[in-house]
């Protein structure tokens, strides 16, 4: 008996050392995921940039009317083609953050990740080229998760570590879109993986740094750095009143924004009109807006940057009209289900809302014109907090991409107040709503049971326990233990660090039990 315990202790010591070596391999592979994601997502960003400027130059040149006919027909055909791609591969629809979260949670699996990645890449570029108000960040995140999935297959990584590579790819995708590796890691933890395991955070940060470095080489000049910010000088009491008012306005507008966006998206999916007719009307709106203000198309980011740099003396009603026009266009663009994110359009709406509040402050003598961009940056991060409900990501992202640390502390104050007010307004995060709508579709309801793979860590609840002694939630059963590249029968087996434990549970319980079950094998 004593010898058996001694042998078990030696075996456990060896597996702890082996586990550290496996972790080192995972971190190295995550760097490779970041590099590959950067090499895919950065060209995606570059193509969007290139086609937007081609389109902008065309409309700015005021060509003869007959040139618009073939261009309109070309864009119409493109949108019909992209709609066909979405119909054939439903997982490439929309931004991709809900799909990425579902893949990490195990709700879905990428059966053909390479083909779907190409379709997402192509569909996102074509939708953006047609002028729709969609962002690059969601597709970049999903493209990164596809890369993580492919690398997990190529490297034969452990089942329990696949989600780390998916998360690393997702974070690297956002880092490639904004050259903001820290914010990308926070997004994965706050909105996608939703479990703060250090291993996930480290792999995501490593991949994000590499992808961000690739993005910085291709785009050495960050347009957001060109925004000039002057911090206003006023008393603490006036500052707090102004920040409180800003948080209230942003919270109410964020609630309206989310309600309209979600409601219109649900109604749009029930409309029985043919796809070619829907695409015709959508493109018609995009084309009309292109004649009026081409920078409002393609997500509206160029219009936001223009206003942040030169809009301190704009007319309030004109900015209100542009914001409402952009918002309406974003609603129908996002509702179409074509590949493209809503992160940047949300950022634009928040920035323009901040510009309106800033211009009102100038009109009433509270602010100087040069302070308007200061309010815009605070409003951008706070509006993301209201709609996406990822406060750390929003605050760090705006600070990271603009380089203006003077807006960090005001963003924390206004963002914190906004988060509190949105809790009072009972607002659900927009991406969470999209995720819940997705998993409640008939295709997801057909699944009954789900298999979750967790990795036993040193010192965790499962470490050293016999499988039969474990107390698991109702209807949860350990069906397999993977050790040394082999599947073992669970009954009577004592778990040690590095074991990959497969737990079967009811599919409808995964959102509630995912974190508790992972925590049984995790010490954090």
TrEMBL record:
It is a multi-pass membrane protein. SUPFAM superfamilies: Clc chloride channel, TrkA C-terminal domain-like. One of its GO terms (cellular component) is plasma membrane. GO terms for biological process: potassium ion transport. Gene3D superfamilies: Clc chloride channel. Keywords: Chloride, Ion transport, Membrane, Transmembrane, Transmembrane helix, Transport. Coiled coil: none annotated. The lineage of its organism: Bacteria, Pseudomonadati, Bacteroidota, Bacteroidia, Bacteroidales. Pfam families: Voltage_CLC. It comes from Bacteroides oleiciplenus YIT 12058. GO terms for molecular function: voltage-gated chloride channel activity. Its main location: membrane. It is found in: Membrane. The chain crosses the membrane at residues 26-52, 64-86, 165-189, 201-221, 242-264, 276-296, 316-337, 343-362, 374-398, 404-422. This is RCK C-terminal domain-containing protein.
């Amino acid at each position: 008996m004593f010898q058996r315990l001694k042998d078990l202790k030696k075996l456990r010591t060896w597996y702890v050392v082996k586990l550290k070596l496996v972790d080192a391999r995972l971190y190295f592979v995550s760097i490779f995921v970041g590099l590959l994601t950067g090499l895919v997502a950065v060209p995606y960003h570059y193509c969007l940039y290139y086609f937007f400027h081609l389109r902008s130059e065309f409309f700015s040149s005021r060509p003869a009317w007959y040139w618009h006919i073939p261009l309109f027909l070309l864009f119409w055909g493109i949108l019909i083609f992209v709609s066909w791609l979405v119909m054939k591969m439903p997982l490439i629809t929309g931004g991709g953050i809900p799909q990425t979260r579902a893949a990490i949670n195990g709700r879905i699996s990428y059966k053909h990740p390479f083909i779907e990645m190409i379709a997402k890449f192509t569909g996102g570029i074509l939708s953006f080229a047609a002028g729709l108000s969609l962002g690059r960040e969601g597709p970049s995140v999903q493209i990164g998760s596809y890369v993580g999935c492919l690398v997990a297959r190529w490297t034969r990584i452990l089942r329990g570590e696949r989600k780390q590579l998916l998360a690393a790819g997702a974070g690297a995708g956002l880092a490639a879109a904004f050259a903001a590796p820290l914010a990308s890691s926070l997004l994965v933890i706050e909105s996608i993986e939703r479990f703060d395991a250090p291993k996930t955070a480290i792999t995501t940060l490593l991949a994000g740094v590499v992808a961000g470095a690739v993005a910085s080489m291709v785009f050495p000049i960050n347009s957001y750095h060109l925004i000039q910010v002057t911090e206003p000088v006023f008393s603490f009491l006036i500052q707090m009143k102004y920040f409180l008012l800003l948080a209230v306005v942003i919270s109410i507008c964020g609630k309206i924004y989310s309600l309209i966006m979600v409601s219109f998206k649900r109604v749009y999916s029930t409309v029985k009109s043919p796809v070619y007719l829907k695409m015709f009307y959508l493109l018609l709106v995009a084309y009309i807006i292109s004649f009026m203000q081409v920078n409002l198309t393609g997500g509206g980011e160029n219009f936001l940057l223009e206003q942040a740099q030169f809009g301190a003396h704009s007319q309030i009603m004109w900015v209100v009209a542009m914001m409402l026009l952009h918002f309406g266009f974003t609603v129908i663009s996002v509702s179409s289900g074509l590949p493209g994110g809503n992160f940047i359009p949300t950022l634009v709406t928040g920035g323009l809302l901040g510009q309106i509040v800033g211009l009102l402050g100038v009109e009433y003598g509270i602010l100087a014109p040069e302070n308007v961009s200061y309010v815009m940056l605070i409003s951008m991060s706070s509006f993301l907090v209201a709609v996406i409900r990822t406060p750390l990501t929003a605050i760090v992202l705006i600070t990271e991409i603009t380089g203006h640390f003077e807006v960090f502390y005001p963003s924390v104050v206004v963002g914190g107040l906004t988060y509190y007010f949105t809790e009072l307004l009972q607002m659900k995060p927009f991406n969470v709503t999209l995720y819940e709508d997705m998993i409640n579709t008939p295709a997801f309801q057909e699944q009954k049971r789900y298999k979750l793979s967790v990795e036993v860590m040193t010192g965790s609840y499962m470490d050293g326990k016999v499988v039969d002694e474990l107390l698991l939630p109702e209807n949860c059963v350990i069906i397999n233990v993977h050790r040394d590249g082999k599947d073992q029968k669970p009954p009577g087996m004592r778990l040690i660090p590095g074991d990959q434990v497969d737990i079967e549970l009811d599919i409808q319980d995964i959102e509630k039990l995912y974190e508790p079950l992972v925590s049984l094998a995790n010490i954090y």
